[in-house]
Write a structure and sequence with these properties.
- This protein has helices at residues 24-36, 61-73, 87-97, 104-115, 119-133, 137-147, 169-199, 215-225, 273-278, 284-287, 303-316, 356-367, 383-392, 413-418, and strands spanning 10-18, 41-50, 78-81, 100-103, 204-209, 247-252, 258-263, 291-297, 324-329, 340-342, 345-347, 372-378, 394-400, 405-411.
- The chain is α/β, with parallel strands linked by helices.
- The strands form three sheets. It has a seven-stranded mixed β-sheet, sandwiched between helices. Strands 2-1-3-4 form a four-stranded parallel β-sheet, sandwiched between helices. Strands 12-14-13 form a three-stranded antiparallel β-sheet.
- The protein is elongated, with a radius of gyration of 26 Å.
């Protein structure tokens, strides 16, 4: 008999494979990774092949006894199901299994609740939790009263989880309404910041992709390459949903051209729709981008499926029709050659810093396509124009003539119009 830590959670995973689900095994592996992200120890897995999900119990009724026996044999204290369960399924399963039941959605919401550091991310997760809980009040009431709403003793977010027991439907709806108003205020602040950036006419490049594909690593390596100080670096770690916050950094190239690079929350299969909706405003950074960098963990055997999930999630939040560079990362742990560029596809190893020059070259081709090479003759009494160009433009040559300073320079559309009077 194993020694059981009463505070630790030991889980049995349960999944139903439908006939057309070719990614079932990966989905179960991902469920285990999600559990590990919350320090839950997985002690076993039960699966079943069905034509359709059982509406009352998720699994077939005959499978319930098998799960119960397996659960008791492994001395587990929670059963985690690989899909979002309906209120009646949760109620029925808890009655039959007499233990805590968690579904995939609850698991992901709990991870997000623990990882959310900014006020906005915390509000977004809390909103998703409340929206998930609202139709499940009857089904969840018994289980929440007994064990708490998520893993590890309940949701970590203030105001979510066990404390919601005392709230009736009306109070939860009021809470949802209040959070939506707060998020609207945050959205207005971000819109103001975005408009200021647009006035600066800097192109926006947005990193998107599956969780743990290496988006933060790409951002940090590009920051290092452009000589940015270490405090500008974003958090990176080899785990699911390491970062939930949107980070915005300015990347300056050697020729003085600059663009803004934004890092967004990573995606996962079966991402709860409440969470997608809650994070919609955060993903607006991607919706307003000039270019997307779709970062892919090419070392993973399911990377094509991960790309599909990312594309579908982006579509769900209205990110469509934006030019995209596919960045196949982690080539250093595959037998694929790198760095290799083929059109808008690049194979690289961000951790090693190999392929970044090539990536920057492709980005430049896209976001600086509207730059024009021009020759300006700036009178000596307009020194502020020369100072501005020295600071903000890609100057190729400067000559001092009798009538003023002759500058050969690359300018964006806005600056070309602004200084058109000096063009030769």
């Amino acid at each position: 008999m194993k020694e059981v830590d009463t505070l630790k959670e030991y889980a049995v995973l349960v999944g139903v494979q439908l006939q057309k689900d070719t990614h079932f095994d990966y989905g179960m592996q991902e469920l285990e990774n999600l559990a590990h992200a919350l320090n839950v120890e997985v002690v076993g897995t039960v699966t079943q092949n069905l034509e359709r999900i059982n509406p009352g119990y998720y699994v077939g009724t005959g499978k319930i006894e098998e799960i119960k026996a397996f659960y008791e044999e492994r001395e587990a204290n929670v059963v985690i199901f690989n899909d979002e369960l309906t209120p009646s399924q949760i109620r029925n399963l808890e009655q039959e299994l007499a233990c805590k039941v968690i579904d995939r959605t609850m698991l992901i919401l709990d991870i997000f609740a623990r990882r959310a550091n900014t006020k906005e991310a915390q509000l977004q997760v809390q909103l998703a939790q409340l929206q998930y809980m609202l139709p499940r009040l009857i089904g969840l009431r018994a289980s929440l009263g007994r064990q708490g709403g998520g893993t590890g003793g309940g949701f970590k977010n203030r105001g979510a989880g066990e404390t919601k027991l005392e709230l009736d439907r009306r109070k939860i709806e009021d809470q949802i309404s209040k959070i939506k108003k707060e998020l609207e205020h945050v959205k207005e602040q971000r819109d103001t910041q975005r408009k200021q950036r647009e006035r600066n006419a800097l192109p926006v490049v947005s990193l998107v992709g599956y969780t743990n594909a290496g988006k933060s690593t790409v951002m940090n390596q590009l920051l290092e390459k452009s000589g940015q100080s270490e405090h500008k670096q974003v958090f990176e770690k080899d785990m699911l949903f390491a970062t939930l916050e949107t980070s915005v950094r300015q990347i300056e190239l050697v020729d003085k051209k600059s663009f803004l690079l934004t890092d967004t929350v990573g995606f996962v299969s079966k991402l709860p729709h409440h969470l997608v909706k809650a994070f919609r405003s955060t993903l607006e950074e991607a919706r307003n981008a000039d270019l997307l960098l779709h970062v892919v963990d090419v070392s993973h055997e399911e990377y094509r499926y991960m790309m599909e999930v990312t594309d579908q999630t982006l579509q769900a939040v209205g990110v469509e029709g934006i030019p995209t560079i596919h960045v196949y990362n982690k080539c250093d742990i595959t037998d694929k050659p790198y760095p290799v560029v083929s059109g808008d596809h690049i194979w690289l190893a961000a951790k090693e810093g190999v392929g970044l020059d090539e990536l920057l070259a492709i980005i430049s081709q896209h976001v600086f396509a509207n730059y024009v090479k021009c020759e300006l003759l700036v009178p000596y009494d307009r020194g502020e124009v020369v100072a501005y160009l020295n600071e903000n433009a890609a100057i190729q040559s400067t000559d001092y003539e009798e009538d003023g300073t002759r500058i050969l320079v690359e300018l964006n559309d806005m600056d070309a119009k602004r200084f058109s009077e000096y063009m030769q």
